Amino acid sequence: MGKVFKFFLQCILFGSGLLWLSSCTNFSDPPYISSTMTSTLLKDNDINEASGIAISRLNNDVIWVNNDSGNSADIYAVNTKGERLATVTIPDVDEGWLDWEDIASFTMDGKAYLLIADVGDNSETDWRYTLYFVPEPDLSQLEKGAHIEVEPEWRTHFVYEDGPRDCEAVAVDVANKKILLLSKRNEPPVLYKLPLKKIKATKAKRVGTVPTFPMPKERHFRFVDLVGFTNKPTGMDIAADGSGIVVLTYGDAFYYPANGVEDDWLKVLHSEPERIELPPLKQAEGIGFDQTGSRVFVTSERLPTPLLDIDISGLRK
User: Fold this and answer.
1) pLDDT tens digits, residue range 73-88?
2) pLDDT at 36
3) pLDDT of 94-145, one tens digit each?
4) Is residue 67 within 8 Å of residue 52, measured between CB atoms?
């Protein structure tokens, strides 16, 4: 792309961003601000585009993180102090398609898994996407700093029934044997579902649209704000006990208690969310519940990589 065209494009984006900001209205409800939100930095320059985060189902104080596109086919285990515990290389991935946008942890049939979602598609032109299902390594059997390979137990290629989509928010619903995907660039966002089973290829079914996520109370002037992406969904997770779902945007996070309708997440996402106010992270893209569902962890792309630990026990109903 030529320098003149780049400059012209930046001017357009900046101008449209200012128009967008001038038309924004603040979300009137007060945000939920955790009294025990803690923050640390990941002490690892290799994790420079943290795009997904998942809390271990096997080991306490273990968090799995993946980088975005353009990086190696590795996932990283860190602790809540931000220290790297292990590196896991996933062999035989489709390198030409590598745009890992999210990671999820879950237990099925008594076995712990990590789902790695190769679902990013900024131009919305890809003809297929891939989910990798990896047995979660038990770090209690490894030395700190270990580097191992783990083969996917299975992988599922899929397409969307209504055409290509860019997606960064993926969650696993074990109770109902479903995988949920929330589109990023559609307005309003669209929820899709896939079956949670060992199949080689399938089609993501459209479930329906969800309400546009609220804007943050305070305006920011980051690049994602200037291009109108502040309230786009970038991460999602379902609590292990099915008690709620959380969605991350570049602005804030939103918690939706299931309230007894765990079999209908579209209905849940149409309910009034509890808003979790976040500091202005550079590019917040990873969110995950802890094993109890009473805390969420959030991370962001770009160095230095933050790790937020947020107590949401006051939101659980």
Assistant:
1) 999 999 999 999 999 9
2) 81
3) 766 679 999 999 999 999 999 999 999 999 999 899 999 999 999 998 999 9
4) no
Which residues, other chains included, contact 96 with Cβ-Cβ below 8 Å and sequence gap of 6+? none
What are the residue ranges spanned by the domains of the chain? 3-315
Q: What is the 3-state secondary structure (H, E, C) of the chain?
A: CCHHHHHHHHHHHHHHHHHHHHHCCCCCCCCECCCCCEEEECCCCCCCEEEEEEECCCCCCCEEEEECCCCCCEEEEECCCCCEEEEEECCCCCHHHCCEEEEEEEEECCEEEEEEEECCCCCCCCCCEEEEEEECCCHHHCCCCEEEECCCCEEEEEEECCCCCCEEEEEEECCCCEEEEEECCCCCCEEEEEECCCCCEEEEEEEEECCCCCCCCCCCCCHHHHCCCCCCEEEEEECCCCCEEEEEECCCEEEEECCCCCCCHHHHHCCCCEEECCCCCCCEEEEEECCCCCEEEEEEECCCCEEEEEECHHHCC
Give the span between the Cα atoms of 128 and 125, in whole angstroms. Answer: 9
| Residue 111 backbone dihedrals phi, psi, to 5 degrees | -125, 140
> Does the domain at residues 3-315 carry the CATH identifier 2.120.10?
yes
- Pairwise CA distance, residues 83 & 146, whole Å: 13
Instruction: Calculate the alpha carbon distances from 40 to 37, 78, 178, 262, 305 in Å.
Output: 10, 12, 33, 33, 9
Which single residue is written with the structure tokens 């979300």? 27
- Is residue 253 within 8 A of residue 204, CB to CB? The reply is no
**Exposure b/e, 194-213, CB count within 10 A at least 16 = b:** bbbeeeeeeebeebebbeeb
